[in-house]
Amino acid sequence: MVTWRAAALLGVGVSTLWLWPDPWMGLAGVIIAVALLCLLDRWSTPNPTTMKLERSGDRICRLGEQATTELAVTNPHSTACRVEIRDAWVPSAQAMPLSHRLVIEGERTEKLVTTLRPTRRGDREAVRVTVRCYGFLGLTFRQAGQAKADRMTPPWKLRVLPRFESRRHLPEKLAKLRTLDGVTTIRGRGQGSEFDTLREYVVGDDVRSIDWRGTARRNDVVVRTWRPERSRRVVCVLDTGRTSAVRVGDEPRLDAAIDAALLLAAVAEHAGDQVDLIAADERVRAAVTRVAGRGLLPRLVNALAPLQPSLTETDFELVTSEILRRERKRSLVVLFTALEPGALGEGLLPVLPRLAAKHRVLIAAVHDPVLNGLADTPITDATSVYRKVAGLRARAERDRVVAALSRHGVRVLDAPASTFASEVTDAYLALKAAGQL
Hints:
This protein is α/β, with parallel strands linked by helices. The protein folds into four domains: about 5-45; about 50-160, Sandwich (Immunoglobulin-like), CATH 2.60.40.10; about 195-225, no CATH class; about 235-435, von Willebrand factor, type A domain (Rossmann fold, 3-Layer(aba) Sandwich), CATH 3.40.50.410. The chain contains 13 helices and 20 strands. Strands 2, 4, 6, 8, 9 and 10 form a six-stranded mixed sheet that branches. It has a six-stranded mixed sheet with strand order 17-16-13-18-19-20, with helices on both faces. A four-stranded antiparallel sheet has the order 1-3-7-5, with no helix packed on it. A hairpin with a 3-residue loop joins strand 16 (about 275-280) and strand 17 (about 285-290). Helix 6 (about 255-270) runs parallel beside helix 13 (about 420-435). The chain starts with a helix and ends with a helix. Pfam families: DUF58 (PF01882).
């Protein structure tokens, strides 16, 4: 292939035709001269497929952060080579710069740095490295074809983890947890439902906590102390069906659910509870089972990173069966879904009694601010009337769904995205303090 330099050289030659006695002979001479120079330049151009490519750099980064990769290009020839290399990634990786131009000396290796600023979580892959070699005159170039470029491209995948913005609430939630455990003395000992120790009675203790057998043995009044339940099971269930693809604010509903599930899992892990996670729609997309202990959060983050909404209806029969199959003991099941009458009324309500009879169920939904905006629309014209009625009807249908779920002993949490993760964890701590896990 020829470059713009060949056309420029031809234009310069054409501009001198007035010096020739015969302009047509002059034109033919210019064309032949430029063609010979192009052939010579083409002959001197190295074959781009002989270049050796290797890649290194970051494999994991968090959404909103920056990652870098290095592409090592080795020139196996003894002479220098002028190249242009385009390191192409998927568009959501936001790779910069788009191309690199450099001269690689003979039998030398140059490293090209590409900066990535992903805009979506999940696996962002390198698509293709295209190498273009120029001749020493710069009139022509040789470029690897698509199939050869694919074979030359070193595979690389960058996993973009969720933002986990709710981790800013973690110190506050852990402080509440320490209060429940009785470590932080605010109103005396911590409350709970598991027996801890016996201690002497002091003025102000609840007389119902007096242990009469212990009092008889010690010949002194002693009371029982309690602590919050430990080694309980918490199951986070993410609905990845079509309702999870709805954008609430600036992010999909699924991303808000992931953020809340991570905060809940982090607090439950510190509380000594066992956390499981299931993501499903018409099939199980991800499942993480972990006994209590450190190292849970990295596993959850890694498993949830590639999770994407599916434009299918969620099979709550499958979800319920999967929970009952995995969880034999009574557990707290936190179902992250949407309060949509169609999906829950036809899918979840028929199977909810089976689930609520075996486990304590908390349904957590991200509130869509658009509904409040519609319901609070001031009436100024006919269009505003229709908007207000639509908002009020949607709100009424949501309230009916909440009432139907509550009749089965299910707790429903409907919160805006800004406080959703915090309120879900607060609900877990409240159940733990009351001994209802």
